[in-house]
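Discussion board: Methods & Data

I've been asked by a reviewer to show the raw model output for two of the constructs in my manuscript, not just the figures. I'm not sure how much to include, so I'm pasting the format here to get opinions. Each protein appears as its amino acid sequence followed by a line of discrete structure tokens. Is this the kind of thing reviewers expect to see in a supplement, or should I convert it first? Here is construct A:
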Amino acid sequence: MKKILALSASLLTAMAFVSCADEPVPVVEPEPVVMSSVAMSSSAAPVVIKEDPREVRRRYLQGLLDKLMSEDVYFEYDAAELNPAARQLLAEVGEILIREKAFAIELQGHTDDRGTESYNMRLGDKRSQIVFDYLTGLGVSNTMLTTVSFGEEAPKSQGEDEEAYAKNRRAHFNVKISE
């Protein structure tokens, strides 16, 4: 009889473990604690000093900019029309700029080094202007945007081949946080 009771108790215990294994264990994420420094008091207990919310926001905005505006808008040779990839990128940028008003953006038009200096300055201006027009057409405030042409003066890539030329035919975002 003792063996039957011991065996029954063992079976019940095993069944309890098996039935608990099917239920997922809830995971509770801890709340993040933002600290700029931890100072020690005279009693050696740490004192947590919370970070300035403006600095947290600044870092958030900077991360947003770094993520979404690290790419340039590229153009075909001797052209200032937006291709589908450029329109997609500008749609994503436009969504952010409509939501976040804390940016001042200089749209920089660039060209490769083929053509005269004056022609390339005009082409760079057309490229920055078409990006400006597209973004404002999406609803971005024109007060956030300025345009400038660098023509061929600030190449992204050195070289005299099509790969280098293609990297230089672009509109670049020079972004600053204006808050």
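Construct B, same format:
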Amino acid sequence: MDKINEFFNKWNGKPADFDGYFGTQCVDLVQYYNQEVFGGPFLTGEGATDLWETFPVDFYKRVLNTPEAIPQKGDVMIWKRTLTLPFGHTSVFRDGD
């Protein structure tokens, strides 16, 4: 949990541009999280929603969004495509209900 807290302290309120393309994006922050906290490989896909299919199974497991699946601090959340989110969205869960 220390690495997760360090990550939040380092990146809270700061822009993240991991790949140098398209400016700061939600996927960029998750790329840094994947690398800095887990030492994971580059995450692939055209948009955030693609991470659901392409994430490295050696580092993460899929948990569907259900009323019983309460995210824990450090979980990577992925939203699917919608009309208002054509590439989906992703974030690292910190706290909430």
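Answer (T.O., handling editor elsewhere):
This is acceptable in a supplement if you add a one-line summary per construct. For B, something like: The two ends are 19 Å apart (CA to CA).
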